[in-house]
Amino acid sequence: MIRFEYEYPVHVKTRAGGSVDFDPANNGSHRALLDRQIAKWQAGHPEAKAARLEFIDRDRHVAVLVDRQSSSVDMRDDSSLEINLSAEHSKPSKGAEVQAVYETKYPGYRLTVFHPYEGKALLERLTDAQATARGQLAAAMGLHDWDLRMTPVEDGGWHAILDDGIVYQADKYDAKVDAACEQIGRLGWWFEADPKNGTIDIHPGLPRTFPRLVQLPFDHLGADRDRTRFGVRLARPGKTAEPAILDWKASPSIYLGGLPGAGKSVFGNDIIADQLATGQVELFVCDHFTKAADYYWARPWIHENGWGCDSLLQTLGVLKTCMADIDKGGPRAEFFRRRGYQNWYQLTDEEKRRMPLRLVVCDEFTQLTVGHKSAGSLPKTALPPVWEEKHDAQVKELILRTVTDLVLVGRAYGYRVILLNQVASAATGMPPSLRSAIGNKALMGARASKNQRGLVFNIAESVPECPQNVFDEGVSKGVGSAEFEGQSPFVFKTYFPVLPDGTDDAKALGKWMCDHLGLPDGIDRSAYLDSFDQTTADDPHFNTVIMDRIRFRDADTYRLFPFLGAIKDRWDESLDEYGGGGADPESDGGTDDDAMPSGVPARPTGPEPSGPLMDAAELARIMRRG
Question: What distance lies between CA 286 and its chain's CA centroid?
């Protein structure tokens, strides 16, 4: 677009020989005269031949003509050229064409501004380094080169200004700009973005990393009921690392996946310790019996009958008890209904003390649910393994359903859920419907594969991976990645509990809890601390005292689910008929006075009977038939 100005006269003569003000803007005859004058002027100025009248500037007595079919270039100074775009080039889609035409025509100049609707563009001289940095940042952000301007700064970095039409969105651009920093400079370069002013400052620096060990700050345990610190984020050498925080209000559930030995249990224990330390949370723990020892340290502070780590039935019983509290007709559900509460945070302080938050921990989720299936109809007769399979599959199905309900329904009633697992897929116990209902997700293990990341995170590509320098420095132990509700994804390293006297890991948590929360009546401190010594045998009395309070009995689960008892009876009958051991799906880790009868009674101790012996299974079958 080329602009011309024709200066018309202030006055014109009349037929009577006088003169009047020349007003082509409002007088038709004057306008016709102006058109003739412009045509005559254009005949002497062929470069303006295609120009058309754009507007009349009455104050300056100037007619402004514009040629929209041609472009013009004005030299602003030695370092820049201003382009008045033609109509053909005044389209957003013509940016690349304008760049190619004018950068070729004016070597050394680069297109830095392209405003097609205004018909303007700007070419500026850029150094090779400046042009390269601009291109790398623009490509990373998915922008055109001319959408941003780059200038070098004193620290060796760059100051980028985004075009007026581009708004910096942290969730969209942060990861991309972070990757571009390494391309523009090297590993360790970092950036600061100012969305309000549309600027990005790129700085040289050393790579972010972690300390070899991040000690748990015991003085922070329980400081904030709704925001749990569990580790630190990546930080540059010499800088204080920001804490990694789990925001329970944003989402009251977390799925914690992990590679074997990656520190999943340490992470889980950090969260449990923090929640217990508030004094406002009741704890329920479920786990596969092979890993139950991970939570022995927390047994004194587990809620009454809240231990579900010795059998599948026990796990189901604990979960069902929690769900019954908030299911239709449950105590907490009814209270909320009567008061019209929509979530736990609406309760008064006194009501919160009477109905505190509940933390439900469910570890080794795959082992607790893999193979889950509804029993369906029961056959008339079957071998014991068939009944065993039906029984266990039904228990696992109920565990999965109950956990899913707790995650979906419990959030409103003050229930917080932690699911821990080594594998996360529908085939191994973590269906997508449950995974998508959990707002917070973390994956422990610095070298997780792409497939593993995809099974944990909603958008795995947006979650940063552990930087290579963390491996090179040998500080990758305890590192993971997080995708939390209301936060940008980040890499973290978990706290590891170490007391000043050198006591560490779970024993450190237990010792600190003894000093700050105390122990329930009847539990001896010395016996509790001695239980961490794996070189000596367990104290039977201590185990009895501590487990009698928290163990959920298998028989109580059968009372909650009578149809499970029916399957158990058929299993026992099959064992009686075909022989074999009693139907004891899993050991509950202790005596159970009111447990369901076993298929084969235990062999009595004492002197041998004097009379002939009858097979126990045969005797049981005869008595059952009457």
Answer: 24
